[in-house]
Write a structure and sequence with these properties.
Layout (H helix, E strand, L loop, with lengths): L6 H15 L6 H19 L3 H11 L3 H9 L13
Helix pairs in contact: 1-2, 1-3, 3-4
């Protein structure tokens, strides 16, 4: 939906994801899956043009502030699994 610039549909999908993420009845595996999807989403959003991102925020309504907060967090860097020790 983001690539197609279908802001209302993308906003609905993102709101659902945010609601699932904040649900208290998720199992660990579900939290991990939702977290991965959220990281992928935020990565894609950071590549968007500012004007497009503002259109998306408008479509999110009250969830826009939640997404803005997540967007302000520093990007996660994959942990280095190699060690010289």
């Amino acid at each position: 939906m983001l690539r197609q610039r279908s802001w209302n549909e993308a906003g609905i999908d993102i709101s659902r994801l945010l609601n699932v993420l904040t649900a208290s009845n998720l199992r660990d595996a579900e939290v991990e899956l939702v977290g991965k999807e959220l990281k992928r989403l935020i990565s894609n959003l950071r590549e968007m043009q500012h004007d497009d991102l503002e259109c998306l925020y408008l479509s999110l309504g009250s969830d826009a502030d939640k997404l803005r907060g997540l967007m302000e967090e520093p990007p996660t860097v994959p942990e280095d699994t190699t060690s010289d020790v």
